[in-house]
Amino acid sequence: MSKENSISSGTSGQFLTNLLRTDLYKRSQGLMTRRVTCIVIWVVFALGAWRLTDFMLEFQPAVRYGVPAALLAAGLWIGYRAVNDPTFADFLIAVEAEMNKVSWPTQSELIRASLVVIILIFGLTMVLFTYDLILSWILNYLGVTVV
């Protein structure tokens, strides 16, 4: 039990230590994935701060805009530091390395595959609609009330 407490406190202590650092972890690896992840985190915090200003309509303007601005500033720093946390950064670096191994389809292959899916969905929709009409007709013929 004490081992679990020491592990969890060590992890949170390490996270807080990494949160207060200013250096970059493996700055040249996984740039695209880390940048996109950081931007997504920033957008989430920005939307949260924006919604918080709408929620705090009855407060003074200093509080209404100051609290969300402080949370936004903290969120921007947390997003920047999160992608430089060694564990998370190594994961993002590995994700980018795996994405570089993917063989992406050409535009014509993508269009053909999309058309096949769209046509199949419309075809299945028509089949199910036909089954529904036939079943409704049979049940009405038998005198069963269809709601």
Q: How is the secondary structure organized here?
A:
Blueprint: H1 2-20, H2 31-55, H3 61-82, H4 86-101, H5 107-142
Helix pairs in contact: 2-3, 2-4
Give a count of the beta strands, DSSP E runs of length 2 or more: 0
Detail the poorly predicted runs.
Answer: 1-8
Shape designation: flat
Helix content: over 70%
Whole-Å distance between the termini?
Answer: 60 Å
- Percent strand equals under 5%
Q: Which structural class do the helices and strands define? A: mainly alpha
Report the order of strands and helices.
HHHHH
**What kind of sheet is the major sheet?**
none
What does the model show?
This protein is mainly alpha-helical and 147 residues long. It has two domains: 25-102, no CATH class; 104-147. The protein contains five helices and no strands. The protein has helices at 2-20, 31-55, 61-82, 86-101, 107-142. α2 runs antiparallel to α3 (61-82). Mean pLDDT is 85; it is low at 1-8.
